[in-house]
Amino acid sequence: MQKYYKIITFGCQMNVHESEKLAGTLERLGYKSTEDDEKADVVVFNTCCVREAAENKALGNIGKFKPIKKQKKDLIIAVCGCMAQQEKKAQEIYTKYPFVNIIFGTHNSYKFEEYLTDVLNKKIKRVYQIVKEEPCLPLEVESYRTSGVNAWVNIMYGCNNFCTYCIVPYVRGREKSRPMEEIVAECKALIAAGYKEITLLGQNVNSYGKTFNNGKDNFAELLEEIDKIDGEYVIKFLTSHPKDLSEKVVKAIANSKHISHMIHLPVQCGSDRLLRLMNRNYTVEKYLNTIDMIKKYIPDVNLSTDIIVGFPTETDEDFEDTLTLLKKVQYNTVFGFIYSKRSGTPAAKMDGQVPMAVKRERVNKLLALQREIEKVKLTRFLGQTIKVLLTERKEGKVFGKTDCGINVIVENVKEFKVDFVNVKINQIKNTKLIGEIV
Ligand code: SAH
Ligand code: SF4
Ligand code: F3S
């Protein structure tokens, strides 16, 4: 009888891709994917802990499976990912949710198959394996890819930056770069298999190669090597740390055939005092110089950023400085987050935590300003003919995106096929461009 699995993923693209590796294991074992809670024989929660909300959402979702498990005794439930990597949280899950069969962290994710088969063969009743990281790259598990035209490729794991608000370095360990030849080979195979977009993943892609490989590889060189691969495709990458984004990388993007003109450059806030407290290692002035340098080489760049509002001691003036920065840079997209206290990080112990009501007010103000900026920015496309990658047809509509990641609704498509087409933009609606094939 056909067995089914359901993977519920929280958090960033790194986790989305990790779930594809878990899916790869399950598919190899003969399982098929389902969206239906009741139909699944294996349910995996791949968790995130970057903010409290992400943890609460996961815990609530796991709780919902208690009655299902009561009905279906041989259902296997696994919890893994960043939240589980925290020893205290993992123990909480182990004791509060006795119906969870398998708990493991980020460093032994590649051992999922072993844990699952141990439980399936009734060798072990429950698996609880939260381990410290090993001084080597994790074993690559073959992915079952689920994100349509896009394929994710890890170029590095972990983070060495220790921004004072952030839990990621504690749950993902130290930076480890994959060898360049391995990454280029993976990209080649994906392009040959028909993927039109590849997104390179790392917490801080600009420090690629600094660790492992004796520091001989670097990100600019990696981009240049991938760009040499024949074919029609786009290469994107996430995420860049402003302190490390070099002129060499920006030039490599500007001179390339395939590297997207989309740069996500999280600034976090516009106050030098707070940037210091956050341990970000740049000033507003230095950040703006980097932005100017990018705009010089890549005039049509699509910039996006992350902002944290309500970091400890943030004053109204600090927040105004952030708004000023948004007006200066003119991002296409801003992801605004309310500061969330993460136990174990330095910022959690700082005085001057900002009340929730103030944080909410600030994030709303931030996002309202950005909506205005975005609307004005998009008008530059009106009447233009641009290259669009058609990505999917849903509810009679065809969706696509530009090389630099702007969403487009394409009308009058006779035959839908994942491919690059030229689209003339006629309209803008709710930050989406609307156009037709020419
Ligand atoms: N390595 C990436 C992604 C980190 S997590 C980077 O540095 O950009 C993604 C975003 O979550 C961060 O950029 C930050 O804006 C936000 N974030 C991290 N910790 C947070 C916290 N404790 N509270 C609120 N937002 C947080
Ligand atoms: Fe977190 Fe900073 Fe590392 Fe990004 S660079 S993952 S924000 S510690
Ligand atoms: Fe969350 Fe882990 Fe990503 S904490 S944001 S899933 S690295």
A few lines on this structure:
It is built from 14 helices and 19 strands.
Describe the structure.
About 35% of the residues lie in helices and about 25% in strands. It is globular. About 45% of the residues are buried. Helix 10 runs parallel beside helix 12. The protein has about 450 residues and is α/β, with parallel strands linked by helices. The longest helix has 23 residues, at about 355-380. The protein is built from 14 helices and 19 strands. The mean pLDDT is about 95. The protein folds into three domains: about 5-130, Rossmann fold, CATH 3.40.50.12160; about 150-380, pyruvate-formate lyase- activating enzyme, CATH 3.80.30.20; about 380-435, Beta Barrel (OB fold (Dihydrolipoamide Acetyltransferase, E2P)). The strands form five sheets. It has a six-stranded parallel beta sheet with strand order 2-1-3-4-5-6, sandwiched between helices. It binds S-adenosyl-L-homocysteine, iron/sulfur cluster and FE3-S4 cluster (F3S). Iron/sulfur cluster binds near residues 162, 168, 203 and 241.
Topology (elements, then pairings):
Elements: E1 4-9, H1 13-28, E2 32-33, E3 42-47, H2 52-63, H3 65-71, E4 76-81, H4 82-85, H5 87-96, E5 102-104, H6 112-120, E6 127-129, E7 150-154, E8 156-157, H7 168-172, E9 176-177, H8 180-192, E10 197-201, H9 219-227, E11 234-238, H10 247-254, E12 262-264, H11 272-277, H12 284-297, E13 302-309, H13 316-329, E14 333-338, H14 356-378, E15 385-394, E16 397-402, E17 407-411, E18 420-429, E19 432-437
Parallel strand pairs: 1-2, 1-3, 3-4, 4-5, 5-6, 7-10, 10-11, 12-13, 13-14, 17-19
Antiparallel strand pairs: 8-9, 15-16, 15-18, 16-17, 18-19
Helix pairs in contact: 9-10, 10-12, 13-14
